[in-house]
Amino acid sequence: MGFYDSEIVQKEAKQLFEDYQSLTQLGSEYGKFDRKGKKIFIEQMESLMERYKIFMKRFELSEDFMAQITIQQLKTQLGQFGVTPQQMFDQMNVTLKKMKSEIES
Question: What are the residue boundaries of the structural domains of the chain, listed by start?
Answer without folding.
Answer: 3-104
